[in-house]
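Async update (no meeting this week)

Hi team, since we skipped the sync, here's where things stand on the single-chain job. The sequence we agreed to prioritize is pasted below, unchanged from the tracker. I ran it this morning and attached the output directly underneath so nobody has to dig for it. Comments welcome in thread, and please keep replies under the output.
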Amino acid sequence: MHRFALALLLSAALAFPALAQKKEEPKKDAAKVAIPTNTFFKGQTASQYLAREQLIGAKVLNKDGQAIGTIDDLIIGSGDKIEGVVMAVGGVLGVGGKTIGVRLGALKVSTADGKVTVTFPGATKEMLGAVEAYQRRGGAPAKK
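Output:
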């Protein structure tokens, strides 16, 4: 136990000087680099949202406002366009559920007060239970 405490103390002592070091000044040559236009985003605009913050993990509601699933991933097609989502449905506490692929056109995505709401108006419990699980390339089911 004493060896562990000593090792922890030694690690902290060695890390402290690294934390106290001054930040490197940006190189003056960086100003000479040509940055192409229409390539990079400077920051998020009011009309944009980030999938990881607002969409991935979002609860999907039916037309009655009841949660029917959760978005696990996006399906990107040719032309790098979002074609749909992979959604986890069914089961209790992650047991007995499955993942399904839903076309983006079947979902209604809306934003109010900075919060994204995803609705699948045509979904019924019976339909979600009957649809086959989403298959990844090669025939493997999508991971939850």
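Quick observations from my side:
Residues 4-10 have pLDDT under 50 and may be disordered.
The longest strand covers residues 67-76.
Reply here if anything looks off.
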